[in-house]
Amino acid sequence: MSEKKINNKGFVSLAGAGPGDAELITLKLQRRLTEADVIITDRLVNPDIISSHARKDTLILFAGKQGYNDSSISQEEVTSLIIEHASQGKKVLRLKGGDVAFFSNVLDELNALVEKNIPFEIIPGITAASGASAYAGIPLTAREHSQGVQILTYNPTSYYNPDTWKHLANSTHTLVFYMAAKNIFDLAELLLRYSKKPATKLVVIEQATTIHQQVHITSLIDCAKDFEGKTFSSPSLVIIGDVVKLHEQFNWFHSAEAGTVFHDLEK
């Protein structure tokens, strides 16, 4: 879609800012950061990305939504902000953590932009699944370990019928769950109920790709015991499958704070 202004309306860039490391952004996003009149950013976007590249006169609006927090800004309010500033002829950069289209509300924003005839573009970013797995040294697909990946969400509002759980529990693919760490015990119990092998490895990766990254490894059967009383920082990602074993061999990311807790050492 052309960036040329139409009917005196502005232009909106819907962009993924990556999983946390400020260097994991695209060259296109870097350019849009310097051009934007208004940046509307989610709470999971690393603020260094904005401070390092945005102009001093750019209007920065924080519009982070947070699960389980009714006081956080609504999607309707975020969409209204985008339309309001774009309708004034401004270049608007809508920044989302990870990739712009992975488990986000981008469809609401796209529908509003099309309805108002406001031109836009979509700039992809590194999603949490890619960032977390890479920085934990866990290839999501690896010969003799996994030939496929399924990316899902799991939270109290998720609904998968029994046939879906049977499929997931018996799949040899790597399973990646967004928004699941708060409900990790229920997730592990469901997979076990529908026949996932008890010794299957499970990892929770907190604040992936940042200096605060923590990797917690256990198995499905030991999850409830090992993680009892544990609260995982947001954002956290869950990876389940044989590839989790590869972390110990290929863990390359080390910082003063980053670390691994092996709750289950059986190989």
Describe what this molecule looks like in 3D.
With 267 residues, the protein is of the alpha/beta class. The chain folds into two domains: 11-126, Tetrapyrrole methylase, N-terminal domain (Cobalt-precorrin-4 Transmethylase, domain 1, 3-Layer(aba) Sandwich); 129-262, 2-Layer Sandwich (Methyltransferase, Cobalt-precorrin-4 Transmethylase, Domain 2). The protein contains nine helices and eleven strands. A hairpin with a 7-residue loop joins β8 (201-206) and β9 (214-219). The radius of gyration is 20 Å and the shape is globular. The model is unreliable at 1-6 (pLDDT under 50).
Give the strand order, joined by hyphens, for the main sheet.
Answer: 6-7-10-8-9-11
Q: H/E order of the elements?
A: EHEHEHEHEHEHEHEEHEHE
Q: Detail the poorly predicted runs.
A: 1-6
Number of self-contained structural domains: 2
Strand content: 15-25%
Number of separate helices: 9
- Going by helix content, strand content and strand pairing, the class is alpha/beta
Principal-axes geometry comes out as: globular
N→C terminal distance: 51 Å
Pick out its properties.
2 domains; Methyltransferase, Cobalt-precorrin-4 Transmethylase, Domain 2; 9 helices; Cobalt-precorrin-4 Transmethylase, domain 1; disordered N terminus; globular; single chain; 11 strands; 267 residues; alpha/beta; six-stranded mixed sheet
